[in-house]
Amino acid sequence: MQLEKYKIDQHNETLSAAHKRKFAALTADLPHAETIVKKLADFQVAIPSWALGTGGTRFARFAGGGEPRSLEEKIEDIGLLHQLNRSSGAISLHIPWDIPKNGAAIKALAAQHGIRFDAMNSNTFQDQPGQKLSYKFGSMQHVDKAVRRQAVEHNLEVIEHGVALGSQSLTVWLSDGSCFPGQLNFRKAFQNTLESLQEVYAALPATWKMFVEYKAFEPNFYSTTVGDWGQSLLYATKLGPKAYTLVDLGHHLPNANIEQIVALLLMEGKLGGFHFNDSKYGDDDLTVGSIKPYQLFLIFNELVEGMDARGMDHTTDLGWMIDASHNVKDPLEDLLQSVEAILITYAQALLVDRAALQSAQQNNDVVRAQEILQNAFRTDVRPLVAEARLRTGGALDPIQLFRDQQVREQLVKQRGLKTIATGL
Ligand SMILES: [Mn+2]
To answer: In terms of domain of life, where is this protein from (predicted)?
Structure first.
């Protein structure tokens, strides 16, 4: 479903006076507020095709109603998010969960909603019905060349789908690894994986990027063949200039200093993309910014600093994507919260007084350096984010409008109570 524009206008009208007051108060002391609002308006976060339905754990899945039943309905849902916040103008497709039957038609539908196709995601972490060989003991690392070949072929297919849709990148996340000591020869597993990735890399169109995503553990609990940023960087370096490391916030060992990882990957020109989520324990895939907002801020602080140091375009030079799972919330409301959290944090990072921070660092003024970062983090930048939405035609309060318009109730009416979106 789509919202009529006048409904968004009416909603904004009712909140306009309060918004103007807050915006004026905040920007009175912010000389570069206009630049920040412009950057916020440009920033887009891709929504993964598997996040439109309710997620589950290995114990249970409690489906909500009105979930999208097809790729077309998923695109419609993202179109709705994008209408509300104007910052969700991209979709990241998962193959084979969301194979476009007619690439041209899907591309046209997405374009109607102002949505482009971000990174394509391949899947060799589960067996599909009718699949010849099993990935039980890995895919690209597998001891059997025929299994490795099958995994490579799958990735080549994913690239083909992506080309038809106008995507420009492939994300490879491998669950490969081992559950017990002795199960794998680490060196051979690495070499097999590298060779397989090289075959996929060779098939990348000239303008494409390949993102090598790492994860510390799960589903394998003893070793992971792309287990950390060092291993990912090793693959990406050996593969070549089109290969990059992808950082997923939930894929580290506890207390890892992710902001430092980000800074160094950017320094090396090898950070390619980002998967946002939040966690308390492991790969919890919770709503962005719901558990550790200060960590997210410190990461964004490095992203902005590092991208500016290399003259990168904040909006287009990295792949920005949410990778989360919504087990107890309405997935659309949850995604609105996640995108909002990303924009708030981005705005805070843009507030950091870079010159002052550099001078504090140069003078070993630790207290001043901390003050500068925390000043930015403790600023309520929500009026800046709301203003960016207002100027681009979105809603001042997306979740409020989503609820006022009873969007979920209407989706349940259209699609039924017992629909299940593809995904895990
Ligand atoms: Mn991920």
So the answer is: Bacteria
